[in-house]
Amino acid sequence: MAKGPIQFKTEEELELMRSSGKLLAQAHGEVASLVKEGVTPRQLDQRAEEFIRDNGALASFKGYKVGSSVFPYSLCLSLNDVVVHGFATDVPLKSGDIISVDCGVYYNGFHTDSAYTHAVGEVAPEVAELLRETKASLYLGIEQAVSGNRVGDISYAIQNHVSRKGYGVVRELVGHGVGRSLHEKPDVPNFGKRGSGPMLQTGMVLAIEPMINLGKKDVMQDKDGWTIRTRDRKPSAHFEHTVVVRKDKAEILTSFEHIEKAVQ
Ligand code: MG
Ligand code: MG
Questions:
Q1: How many Å lie between the centroid of ligand 1 and the Cα of residue 62?
Q2: Most exposed among 91, 108, 123, 186, judged by the fewest C-beta atoms under 10 Å?
Q3: Considering the entire predicted model, what is its pTM?
């Protein structure tokens, strides 16, 4: 969990974050164009690392430390029942898989953070629906990211949407502020009460990231110290945008347009 006060960004800082978000959106497009049967997660990771480096930026996750553990890859690649923080394996993707690509970019002094879960080939209809509804919940959360609302309004909007489908909302992992540090205050849970939590104000930058399970909410960690998967081994979806809280409508810094062009 992030420490310290909420970091409000000036318009000049937001301009720098906008360039970081643009680069991240492009990196996601590069990766998305490779996602298909037979490709390995390691190949996706290598492409992202190359693209980010060639553009004069750093991958935020590579070398990220929690205690004495160091994350070894540029992307978090989370397959099927893996919720988040999966490793880039050499096991080729197969039709019916889903893979969450979570990427962070450090550019111009600022991090941006975004995730998208891809379907590989033909996935089961209930899994395709999980992806659609998790993405929809992200945008419902973003609609609430306006000044005068509270963090709980975002949380409630996400939870309310996905609970109707009977999905499990992960409790142990949450969205967060983002800026000069990858994880800043406030925490942005995907569950909660309307009107609760810190007040949202213009200049706050949030990574909103529903992590939603087809089955129950419970998760466990693998022995590698990173990989988080569902306890019931059912699939999990993850979508994330970095957004600026504004007066009437949040500004999304990490568009999915490059991804959606690539996977058409
Ligand atoms: Mg992320
Ligand atoms: Mg994040």
A1: 12
A2: 91
A3: 0.98
